């Protein structure tokens, strides 16, 4: 994935299953209060595995810095 992409989380969509956490090769994600959190944004390699595995579309790589 392109390095200009930004990891975006939709907490209201997250059900706290932890699948994205398990598939993250750099272990930058974690569950806080049963919702996904980015624990180490600098460590993210933007591989897209979290986006690919999330059954609820709660985490994805966006291409626009202004995107919320």
TrEMBL record:
Gene3D superfamilies: 3.30.70.20. InterPro entries: 4Fe4S_Fe-S-bd, 4Fe4S_Fe_S_CS, Fe-S_Ferredoxin. GO terms for molecular function: 4 iron, 4 sulfur cluster binding; metal ion binding. The keyword rRNA processing does not apply. Pfam families: Fer4_10. Keywords: 4Fe-4S, Iron, Iron-sulfur, Metal-binding. Residues 5-34, 35-64 form the 4Fe-4S ferredoxin-type domain. This is Ferredoxin.
